[in-house]
Design goal:
The chain has one domain: Rossmann fold (3-Layer(aba) Sandwich), CATH 3.40.50.2300. The two termini are 20 Å apart. Strand 3, helix 3 and strand 4 form a beta-alpha-beta unit. 41% of the residues lie in helices and 20% in strands. The chain has 5 helices and 5 strands. Helix 2 runs parallel beside helix 3.
Length: 130
C-alpha cells in the first residue's frame, strides 16, 4: 500500500504552534505550508491546492472565522475540503460559530499527533492531481 503525501496549509500566527504543526504533520508524511495571517492564508490557498486547512481562530489581521468566510466566497473548491478550526477556546457557542462559518471540524489546542491523525482521516481521498 502506498502512503499518499497530503498538502496541508496551517494558518497560525504563534511560532510555537507553527513548530508543533511542522513536527506533528511531518510525522504523518504531510507537506505543511504556514501562513502567519488570515490574508496570507487566503492568498496561499488561492495559489496552491491544499487537501487540508488548519486555521487558528485568533489571528492578528482578521479572525479565523472571517478568513474562512472570505476564502469560501472566492474559492469554491474549498467547500469540498476539510477546514479545521484550531483554537484555545473550548466553548460550545464558539464551536457552533466556527461550524456555521464553514469549518468542518473544531479542535482545541494544543495540536497533538492523535488530533492531526483525526484531521487527516476526515479528509476525502486524494484524486490524481496531474
Amino acid at each position: 500500500m502506498t502512503h499518499e503525501i497530503r498538502h496541508v496549509l496551517m494558518i497560525e500566527d504563534c511560532q510555537i504552534a507553527q513548530k508543533v504543526g511542522k513536527f506533528v504533520f511531518g510525522k504523518l508524511d504531510c507537506v505543511l505550508d504556514i501562513a502567519n495571517s488570515g490574508q496570507a492564508g487566503i492568498e496561499m490557498a488561492q495559489k496552491h491546492h491544499y487537501s487540508l486547512l488548519v486555521v487558528d481562530v485568533g489571528l492578528p489581521d482578521m479572525s479565523g472565522i472571517e478568513t474562512i468566510e472570505r476564502l469560501l466566497k472566492t474559492n469554491a473548491k474549498y467547500k469540498q475540503q476539510p477546514i479545521i478550526a484550531l483554537t484555545a477556546h473550548n466553548d460550545e457557542d464558539y464551536r457552533k460559530n466556527c461550524l456555521s462559518a464553514g469549518f468542518t471540524s473544531y479542535f482545541c489546542k494544543p495540536l497533538t499527533l492523535d488530533a492531526a491523525k483525526e484531521m487527516i482521516s476526515a479528509q476525502p481521498s486524494a484524486k490524481d492531481s496531474l
